């Protein structure tokens, strides 16, 4: 799969067979163990770490700073470096809707039981409700916190539930059970689509894999802080932008956000630059780490406030220019 060697100069040379994100993520996990094995602590790293990605057409080499590489290796992913500052009502509503699976489980246990409706097994109904509650409670909370794994766990549970009900209804050839299974499947489909939509909003998800240090910025698009924050440099790079909100980040320095912010979006070359101002609410914050600066990388998701007709038209025209350039598609 790959090799790691300690050079006489103290350098760590890593050779990985696949020039892909998978090999890079493997390196992130291997490095701390190797550092501990050779007696290096995270504070006393060697002078450089060489990451070599070997492919059939030749070698691709990248030299990373040791502290930066170790920070990424020790960080368990982007989700743990991101926190929800203020959850939108739509996100809270979609997460609360997950609790509807509890009564669905209770009714399912009653409908698929062999007892008549006035003599239902209350113990089985209570057990079904408790199991469903134990499943959805942590998932609902983690959805509010923006954990990606929560949605995948919810989707897995819903798929298994629907398949089990459909197969059971087909096995017993029950008309009522079959209709109920179809209804539960439709409900689960709508619930998954709603929660997925809330998790993927522009101001909530920068669309950045866990091994990636920073999002990919839209070229020539910057957001200048006007009010509501204490800037260090003033300009932010933007990775996602639509009429609902945006996600911006800073590669150098930190910005301490307030709940309400005002930004000026700028796009294009200086002699033909397009500008528009927008106000919003901070929804999510991203914090990185670095050896050269105390604060490290920083990012923030901002949900735009409702606007008047003129301001809304100005923003839509601004977005239309970016859409015409092919930088945004939502």
Helix run count: 8
* Number of beta-strand segments: 11
Helix residue percentage: 40-55%
Report the order of strands and helices: EEHEEHEHHHHHEEEEEEH
By secondary-structure content and strand pairing, the structural class works out as: alpha+beta
β-strand percent reads: 15-25%
Biggest sheet, spatial arrangement of strands: 6-7-8-11-10-9
The average pLDDT score comes to: 75
Helices and strands in order:
Blueprint: E1 3-6, E2 12-16, H1 21-37, E3 49-55, E4 58-64, H2 66-74, E5 82-84, H3 89-97, H4 101-111, H5 122-144, H6 148-172, H7 175-199, E6 221-230, E7 235-241, E8 245-250, E9 256-267, E10 274-287, E11 298-304, H8 309-325
Parallel strand pairs: 2-3
Antiparallel strand pairs: 1-2, 3-4, 5-10, 6-7, 6-9, 7-8, 8-11, 9-10, 10-11
Helix pairs in contact: 1-2, 3-5, 3-7, 4-5, 5-6, 6-7
In short:
This protein has 330 residues and is of the alpha+beta class. It is built from 8 helices and 11 strands. It has 3 domains: 3-74, no CATH class; 82-199, no CATH class; 221-325, Thrombin, subunit H (Beta Barrel), CATH 2.40.10.220.
How does this model look, in words?
The strands form two sheets. This protein has a six-stranded antiparallel β-barrel with strand order 6-7-8-11-10-9. The protein has three domains: 3-74, no CATH class; 82-199, no CATH class; 221-325, Beta Barrel (Thrombin, subunit H). Residues 17-29, 35-49, 51-80 and 290-295 have low confidence and may be disordered. The chain is an alpha+beta fold and 330 residues long. The chain has helices at residues 21-37, 66-74, 89-97, 101-111, 122-144, 148-172, 175-199, 309-325, and strands spanning 3-6, 12-16, 49-55, 58-64, 82-84, 221-230, 235-241, 245-250, 256-267, 274-287, 298-304.
